[in-house]
């Protein structure tokens, strides 16, 4: 008798969902990204009991059309991508159609949504664990969408226990992640709050509908933090023949005609390269690729190395948005899309270090304390 058999569909769904939604951060990230993708100019994230009881994300975006209710939470159903080749021209955060389907499998989940022409009425949508629409009802609602995730991991006892144990630390990580989304999203009013079971509601942070990232940073981190930052406004050619940063004078003499060269722009804000203007811990460093928050450990290392040669005792505050050609990277590496594969990373890092030295030279009279090898 054959022993190799397919895993039952429901179990496959649960196993795969557990890879998309791994913690509180993934829930908040996926829902906020959906709100931004829906064109929202106001996004409110409400945690109940640090997210242990519920996470709700309310937006004033386009809402969901009745024709899409049935497929909304089905796996690999998305309004954002239909063929693989669309990936390179993608301007939305989402594209896999996995988040809502995974949340159905791992939480008590429902959605309330209303379109502009729905008047003051909206629809509450409830789903089965598989993502199949279970029922709808008419409710009072404003234009936009509210997604409610209750009792995350209630059906995965080990993860639920772990979440109960670590929830406060997790909540801290979520705030850091949401700070990045709030600061990069110009023209979007963000607010994040937490409601304890018997306590009052506390607002963790809020931004106004600012047109500039620097005003978002001021809202989130305070005007004083902002004062210690200088604009990060770099444009450089990514030169595959770049020499190590020790030859930093050469930064001005690069051959831009080099066949392998590509223009990179980096926009943002960074601490002044002066002792006393940095931070004790490197906890405020945010990186983006074309406005998508992501983890760029090698890029972070390059920034920190150059900064350390001016201020060895502290770490910089970094808010850096890399503007890259969409062919120069691949976001489809990890389920959470935070890991990004940068083609030609070595060339980019060398050119980046040179450009940073140049920037810092303009802001500090002193010669770097240690020249990088
Ligand atoms: P993806 O974002 O990869 O498309 P999701 O599972 O996150 O997959 O969402 C599925 C679809 O549901 C989206 O493509 C979008 O059409 C719709 N959707 C999800 N959240 C919202 C929202 N807040 N407002 C409007 N539509 C939404
Ligand atoms: Mg999505």
UniProtKB/TrEMBL annotation:
Regions that span the bilayer: none
DNA mismatch repair protein S5 domain location: 217-361
Superkingdom field: Eukaryota
Family: Belongs to the DNA mismatch repair MutL/HexB family.
Protein name: DNA mismatch repair protein PMS1
Organism: Aaosphaeria arxii CBS 175.79
């Amino acid at each position: 008798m054959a022993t190799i058999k397919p895993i039952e569909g429901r179990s496959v769904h649960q196993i795969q969902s557990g890879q998309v939604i791994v913690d509180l951060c993934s829930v908040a990230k996926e829902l906020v990204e959906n709100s931004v993708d829906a064109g929202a100019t106001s996004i409110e994230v409400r945690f109940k009991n640090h997210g242990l009881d519920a996470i709700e994300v309310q937006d004033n975006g386009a809402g969901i059309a009745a024709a899409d209710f049935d497929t909304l939470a089905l796996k690999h159903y998305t309004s954002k991508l239909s063929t693989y080749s669309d990936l390179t021209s993608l301007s939305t955060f989402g594209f896999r159609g996995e988040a809502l389907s995974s949340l159905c499998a791992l939480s008590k989940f429902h959605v309330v949504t209303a379109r502009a022409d729905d008047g003051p009425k909206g629809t509450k949508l409830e789903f089965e664990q598989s993502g199949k629409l279970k029922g709808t009802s008419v409710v009072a609602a404003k234009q936009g969408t509210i997604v409610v995730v209750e009792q995350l991991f209630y059906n995965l006892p080990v993860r639920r226990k772990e979440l109960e144990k670590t929830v406060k630390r997790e909540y801290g990580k979520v705030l850091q992640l949401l700070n990045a989304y709030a600061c990069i999203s110009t023209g979007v009013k963000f607010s994040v709050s937490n409601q304890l079971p018997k306590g009052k509601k506390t607002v963790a942070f809020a931004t106004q509908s600012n047109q500039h990232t620097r005003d978002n940073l001021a809202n989130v981190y305070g005007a004083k933090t902002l004062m210690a930052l200088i604009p990060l406004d770099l444009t450089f050619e990514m030169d595959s023949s770049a020499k190590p940063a020790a030859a930093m004078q050469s930064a001005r003499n690069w051959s831009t005609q080099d066949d392998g060269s590509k223009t990179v722009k980096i926009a943002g804000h960074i601490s002044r390269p002066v002792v006393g203007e940095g931070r004790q811990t490197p906890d405020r460093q945010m990186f983006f690729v074309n406005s998508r928050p992501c983890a760029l450990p090698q890029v972070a290392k390059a920034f920190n190395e150059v900064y350390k040669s001016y201020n060895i005792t502290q770490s910089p505050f970094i808010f850096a948005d890399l503007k890259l050609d969409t062919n120069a990277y691949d976001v489809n590496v990890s389920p959470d899309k935070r890991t990004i594969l940068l083609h030609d990373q070595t060339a980019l890092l060398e050119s980046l270090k040179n450009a940073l030295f140049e920037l810092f030279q303009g802001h500090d009279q002193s010669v770097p304390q240690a020249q990088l090898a």
